[in-house]
Amino acid sequence: MFISLENVTYIYLPHTPFELTALKNISLTIERGESVGIIGRTGCGKSTLIQHFNALLFPTVGKVWIDGEEINKKSPHLREIRRKIGLVFQYPEHQIFEETVYAEVAFGPRNNGMTGSELEETVRWSLESVGLDYHFLKDKNPFELSGGQMRRIAIASILSMRPEALVLDEPTAGLDPEGKRMILQKLKYLREERGTTLILVSHNIDDLAHLSERIVVMDRGTIGMDGPIRDVFSQIEQLEKYGIKPPTTARIAELLMKKGYDIPRGVLTPEELSSEIKQKILMRSHQ
Amino acid sequence: MIGKGFAVGQFLPIESPIHHLDPRVKILLSGILIVVLFVVQDWISFFLLSVFIILMTVAAKIPISYIGKSLKPILFLLVFTLILQIFFTPGEYLWEYSFLHISREGLARGLFIIVRLCLLILATALLTLTTSPMELTDGLESLLGPFKKFGFPAHELAMMMTIAIRFIPTLMEEADRITKAQQARGADFETGSLLQRAKNLIPLLVPLFINSFKRADDLAVAMESRCYRGGIGRTRLRVLRFQKTDYLFLAGSLVFITVVIVCSYILW
């Protein structure tokens, strides 16, 4: 039990005319090493939910445990918890403030007391983890770089704290396809090579199809569906009920099935789908 | 107006006869009330004016807690004024201890000033609690309209106010987001010496400014691409028009206030 929420309700501005219940009685457990995708309509509480994962928000009602410790406002290790669970906000490049890429990425570890060659090594590692050239970029002004590069620097500036889990809110929003592909590829690498726990929030179901093993569907502050990705994504009618367009691959598989081709419902990636189709074509030509 | 997790300004969006009044009526009346509160010098007028303000507050359906909230920021000022007036006004001494003394005149003046301050705050709070920021700027633009002849930029001023007010929630939301994003990177905004804390604000302020400049640029382009060229010849979606109730309310209030002033003159 790495991150665990028990009957969490969160209310913005309670006891005012502006009161807004963002989360309603949510229970959710995420284990170390999992790769979870969180999806749902705009305003369903995704962003509020993930801020509970690293003690930026505290539940109005209910309990949160992180790494075996119950978290509340007075917990003594808030800083350590925020280091452990790295949270990358939406449009993280909007938080960049330093004059050089090096200083920007070093901000987090410096706050946690890291110095000297260890710091330098960490910055290099973080930049390389997101596919950026350390020597070329370290003295550059981050504001002169492209949007995709700034996004990756912002992600590197969280990675540099060496978090045990990485939570990302819409990491590919507003990027061109190349920048998008690059980020997803780097996240996949982190997950597969380093075993980082990955929690990904996205509107884009195709992004999640590449990366997540488990999908949590949120709907108006509650959890609508929660299960292995293939199970969740094959329930097309259910997904549509929650306002989620099923992944392109699942829709193609569905259409092919209606035409009488025997494609399994759980196909996720374009690669899987194309190999299935290839097989069917080969089988036909053999007949 | 609401940003996620923020109530901005004081405006309380509920239904009441006061909320439905023309903003110009409310702006004019609170202006007059403020002047009158400075002019009157006796307790009877104060009493009558308080009754007037309390009646309006009740009519506006404003919860008691909001009145307390609007008085809270000036609590220190109130206490400070009271202490100064009580201890440093010469006159007939009621109590004495070495250099400290309380005079009858000081006590009376202190209380008088406090009541005046409270009523001033309540009169203005009544305006901002019942009038949305947009209505306020529309009302101001309309009231300042006649001064355009003398080169006063009423429209531009109102437009700037509208834009500024429009972006308060956006800015607050952004400040909240960046604060949290930097906290997630181990930034500390709560402890340390004053100088240290000011320094710690840099990771918040720099992005906030950069994003604001970007947003201002975008907004300018968006307005120009829709042919915005200032106020001349511009029409509006909601034109302010005095209704029967507005005339009645304004007339009634003016009569009441005039009576108070006249009474205060005669009695004083």
| Biggest sheet layout of chain B | 2 strands, antiparallel
| Mean pLDDT across all amino acids of chain A | 88
Number-wise, the strands of chain B total 4
Spans of chain B of 5+ residues with little confidence (pLDDT < 50)?
1-8
Residue fraction in strands of chain A: 15-25%
Please list the strands of the largest sheet of chain A in the order they lie side by side.
6-7-8-3-9-10
The computed structural class of chain B is mainly alpha
The average pLDDT score of chain B comes to 84
The helix-strand sequence of chain A is EEEHEEHEHHHHEHEHEEHHHH
Helix % of chain B is: 55-70%
Strand content of chain B: under 5%
Uncertain segments of chain A: none
What distance separates the N and C termini of chain A? 52 Å
Q: What overall form of chain A do the CA principal axes indicate?
A: globular
* Interface with most residues: A-B, 28 and 26 residues
How do the helices and strands follow one another from N- to C-terminus of chain B?
EEHHHHEEHHHHHH
Tally of alpha and pi helices of chain A: 12
User: In which range does the helix fraction of chain A lie?
Assistant: 40-55%
The number of helical segments of chain B is 10
Task: State the shape of chain B.
Answer: flat
Structure description:
The complex is a heterodimer of chains A (287) and B (268). Chain A has a domain at 247-287. Chain A contains 12 helices and 10 strands. Chain A has helices at 46-53, 78-84, 101-111, 116-129, 134-137, 147-159, 177-194, 205-211, 229-234, 236-241, 248-258, 270-286; strands at residues 3-12, 20-30, 35-40, 61-66, 69-70, 85-88, 165-169, 197-201, 214-219, 222-228. The model of chain A has no long low-confidence stretch (mean pLDDT 88). Helices cover 67% and strands 5% of the residues of chain B. Chain B has helices at 23-39, 43-59, 64-71, 75-88, 104-130, 133-144, 154-183, 194-200, 202-224, 244-267, and strands at residues 2-3, 6-7, 93-97, 100-103. The radius of gyration of chain B is 24 Å and the shape is flat. Chain A binds chain B through residues 12-13, 16-18, 20, 51, 54, 56, 79, 82-83, 86-87, 89, 92, 94-97, 107-108, 111-112, 143, 157-158, 161, and chain B through 2, 4-7, 12-14, 174, 177-178, 180-188, 202-203, 206-207, 210-211.
